[in-house]
What does this fold into?
Amino acid sequence: MNHKKHLAIASALVVLVSGITYLILDAIYQLPAARSAEAVPIDELFRGHFILISFLFALVVVFMGYSLVAFRRRPGDDSDGEFIHGSNSLEVAWTVIPLFLVIGFGVWGWNVLDEVTASKPNEIMVEVTGQKWQWSFHYPELGQYANTPDLVVPVNTTIRLEMESRDVLHSFWVPEFRVKKDLLPGQKTTLRITPTDEGTYKIRCAEICGQRHAYMLADVRVLSATEYASWESEILAIASLPPAEQGQRLWQANCSSCHSLDGTALVGPTWQGIYGRQEALVDGSSVTVDEEYIQESIYEPNVKIVAGFQPNLMPQNYATILSDQDVANIIEFMKTLAQP
Ligand code: CUA
It folds into this structure.
């Protein structure tokens, strides 16, 4: 067989093995269905890499395997192999072609990154807070009641997430949206998502952050424009409720994960029968729970610590989140929480 024939067979095999390898890779690294605008260019980038990887794999393995079989030593053949000193054109080709391929993929990746991180018209901004081991979401445009444990967003709108951690590194990741970004303590990071399909998806923490890292989950609920508008007006309507009911909503949004209403001690003291009771403090003194004490405990939680509880657990930034009026509404709510 002459060289041309060998080359033709090997080339056909390269095409065949490339195709098979691509199908295998595609089956193994199956991603969940794409549900965001950002997912489209990212999936194309993945596909491009898979095709290139499959081709390079076939190129190396087929030529090696083919040579082992086609040019093996035949029985009785004791002659030396042909002496080849090298091939300049081949060496230039296998240096220059991969160089341009790598540069090309680099430029492609850069463009995709530019595209998915670029600011878009009519973005909705949501503040994301990560802490061990939960997510919380705040909608600054909807006022102080808009704190939610799940992310609620309208479909086909770009959401700009301004993210920060209260403690260690966390990472915001919704596999269906493809994009992912870390949350850092003391430094804001930004991530943009544009959900394209209504439905509920899981937000996962993708940065190992301690004991309950695997359970640091939340839902992202993608609503139609109409459903989102009615969700928004529900939140805005809270501001016109009677003070005690507003206080209850504030408790739900800000305090409920640490302060129970049923007598259970969580991270902080229960609010059951809290207003007017005597509270023993860690320094041995005691205090009556009145308006002044409550306001101080919300704005400067470390000044007086109730016996049996730890300092530094309550966030110390409520003075920037809750106004004096909010605190007054919370106190009105506390007054309705009688002793059992
Ligand atoms: Cu937060 Cu892992």
